[in-house]
């Protein structure tokens, strides 16, 4: 690696360090408030029947009357996992309380914000919703809302599925009937249905966790950072704040708002959404904390005189538990957004939950998962260590070649490769286990970002494995002292020191930088990731000590038996 490459690598490392320092300083200067609000659970929308096109003479109506002064009333539907707080303001769910999930300051996790649009509200313009008064009635099966205009009567019913239809305790259903009591056909234009709002629930939440997400064969979404103004790069591509996000879609299965661990997701069961809308809203100006609210757009239809058009929606309101979301019928598990490493993340999460079912502790489950991954890679790591030890025996000869051809780098590289070939050494053999670890690391990283199972799980001094294990802050700087990432870095340097030194100087230097890069990458992330990587390092150190006790092989040329034909390349 030449001088220019060294300068580039050093600048990258310094840039990463500077970024982490800046992010930490911003968090200390503007800490996120303690918010018990989490993202509202997605509802599964009911599908609409085939509808004829609207004739020009049909009356166009809006299902929500103009807002007027009235007394807001509420009702509560509950089961053992959900409390739905329903309001006559717009006829929807103002808040979803999860009694079995604790927020900060001893409160319960609450999805949606009572100050934003209720979940299930019907709107023509979500930017300025007309949340009028709906009559509200309760019976044994649920809560019913009704709103009347001369052209149309709209009835909504929120309920929990009957026992024979029950899919999950976090699932509720919404039935909406559009009845035409008049003498002429009534047109219902494209309309929006609110999916609620989400907001940060931890002080360490990154803005990318607070998102509006939708699925139509592929998961897409925007986070609160999309709405923020940008100074661009060196003044290039500057842009002002964007007030709303709106996009026309085709055959969208569901729309959700989501935070790091919880979601509100709506699936239309009788039709498909044809658009999505979202906006960022301010929670605290001083701390620059924002949430996001969203709505799905549903297609227009007409209702003939004396007829009723019925629609149904399924709502998932709760934690992003993959093993439960994956059992639902409309790809709700895609709200996890595992991305490129989806298969690895799913396999690791399933393994983690399997270990937990036996061990009863998530820290122990992480240790068991780490040991399992290490044992699976143990033979491959043995071969890599042997390859590096063989290369180590060639160091004197390689040094001779470097001295001999120091003025001819091309010839030097040719002779070095010839030396490797003669002795049956693969110069990249020692890197293979590291390359295999990279997708595992990023799959774990992606999975642990949203593993609600780890939320609140403790281990030794760590109170929450889903958060950094901060034990103190450096006075005057505000820099958090996270112990486990420091252990991880120490074990990484120990492992690097014990790793056999190959004859490739570039590979040696890159190995020296690896611990620095990983500590920067993991320092403010979930303690569970640092626990995994620290344990992985310690097991690798053990393996290196075992390999080191074996005799160092002598450099021997590889001979080809006479008469054996060379393989064609």
Overview of the molecule:
The structure is a single chain. The N terminus and C terminus are likely disordered. The chain is elongated and about 100 Å long. The protein contains ten helices and 25 strands. The two termini are 30 Å apart. It is of the alpha+beta class and 569 residues long. Helix 3 crosses helix 4. The longest helix is centred in the middle third of the chain and has 32 residues. 31% of the residues lie in helices and 26% in strands. A hairpin with a 6-residue loop joins strand 24 and strand 25. Strands 2, 9, 10, 11, 12, 15, 16, 18, 19 and 23 form a ten-stranded antiparallel beta sheet that branches. The chain has a five-stranded mixed beta sheet with strand order 1-7-6-5-4, with no helix packed on it. Strands 8-14-21-20-17 form a five-stranded antiparallel beta sheet, with no helix packed on it.
Rounded mean pLDDT is: 78
C-alpha Rg (nearest Å): 30 Å
**What is the percentage of strand-forming residues?**
25-35%
Distance between the termini: 30 Å
Shape estimate: elongated
Strand count:
25
User: Largest sheet at a glance?
Assistant: 10 strands, antiparallel
Indicate the structural class. Answer: alpha+beta
Oligomer: single chain
Low-confidence stretches: 1-9, 19-67, 565-569
Helix amount: 25-40%
Number of helices: 10
């Amino acid at each position: 690696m030449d001088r220019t490459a060294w300068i580039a690598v050093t600048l990258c490392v310094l840039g990463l360090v500077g970024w982490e320092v800046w992010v930490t300083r911003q968090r200390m200067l503007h800490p996120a408030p303690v918010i018990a609000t989490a993202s509202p659970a997605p509802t599964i929308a009911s599908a609409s029947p085939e509808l004829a096109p609207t004739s020009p003479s049909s009356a166009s109506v809006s299902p929500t009357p103009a807002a007027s002064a009235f007394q807001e009333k509420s009702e509560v539907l509950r089961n053992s996992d959900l409390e739905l707080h329903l309001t006559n303001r717009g006829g929807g769910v103002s808040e979803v309380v999860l009694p079995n999930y604790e927020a900060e300051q001893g409160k319960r996790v609450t999805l949606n914000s009572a100050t934003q649009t209720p979940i299930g509200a019907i709107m023509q313009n979500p930017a300025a919703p007309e949340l009028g008064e709906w009559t509200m009635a309760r019976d044994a099966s649920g809560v019913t809302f009704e709103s009347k205009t001369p052209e149309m009567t709209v009835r909504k019913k929120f309920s929990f599925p009957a026992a024979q239809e029950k899919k999950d305790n976090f699932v509720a259903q919404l039935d909406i009937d559009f009845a035409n009591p008049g003498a002429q056909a009534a047109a219902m234009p494209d309309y929006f249905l609110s999916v609620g709002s989400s907001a940060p629930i931890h002080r360490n939440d990154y803005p990318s966790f607070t998102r509006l997400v939708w699925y139509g064969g592929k998961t897409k979404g925007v986070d609160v950072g999309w709405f923020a103004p940008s100074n661009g790069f060196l003044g290039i591509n500057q842009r002002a704040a964007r007030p709303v996000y709106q996009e026309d879609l085709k055959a969208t299965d569901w729309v959700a708002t989501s935070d790091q661990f919880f979601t509100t997701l709506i699936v239309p069961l009788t039709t498909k959404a044809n658009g999505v809308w979202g906006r960022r809203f301010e929670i605290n100006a001083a701390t620059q904390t924002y949430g996001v609210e969203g709505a799905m757009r549903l297609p227009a239809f007409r209702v003939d005189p004396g007829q009723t058009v019925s629609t149904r929606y399924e709502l998932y309101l709760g934690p992003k538990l993959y093993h439960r979301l994956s059992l639902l019928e409309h790809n709700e598990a895609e709200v996890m957004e595992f991305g490129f490493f989806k298969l690895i993340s799913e396999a690791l999460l399933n393994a983690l939950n399997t270990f937990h079912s036996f061990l009863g502790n998530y820290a122990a489950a992480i240790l068991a998962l780490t040991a399992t991954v290490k044992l699976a890679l143990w033979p491959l790591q043995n071969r890599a260590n042997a390859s590096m030890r063989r290369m180590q025996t060639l160091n004197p000869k390689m040094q001779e070649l470097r001295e001999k051809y120091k003025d001819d780098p091309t010839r030097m590289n040719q002779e070095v490769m010839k030396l490797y070939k003669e002795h049956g050494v693969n110069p990249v053999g020692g890197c293979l286990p590291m390359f295999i670890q990279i997708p595992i690391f990023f799959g774990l990283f992606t999975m642990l970002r949203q593993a609600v199972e780890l939320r609140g799980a403790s281990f030794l001094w760590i109170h929450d494995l889903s958060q950094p294990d901060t034990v103190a802050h450096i006075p005057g700087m505000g820099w958090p002292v996270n112990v486990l990432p420091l252990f991880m870095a120490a074990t990484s340097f120990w492992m690097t020191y014990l790793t056999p030194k190959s004859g490739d100087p570039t590979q040696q230097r890159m190995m020296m930088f690896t611990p620095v890069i990983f500590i920067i990458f993991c320092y403010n992330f979930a303690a569970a990731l640092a626990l995994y990587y620290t344990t992985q390092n310690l097991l690798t150190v053990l393996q290196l000590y075992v390999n080191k006790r074996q005799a160092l092989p002598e450099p021997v040329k590889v001979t080809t038996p006479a008469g054996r034909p060379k393989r064609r390349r």
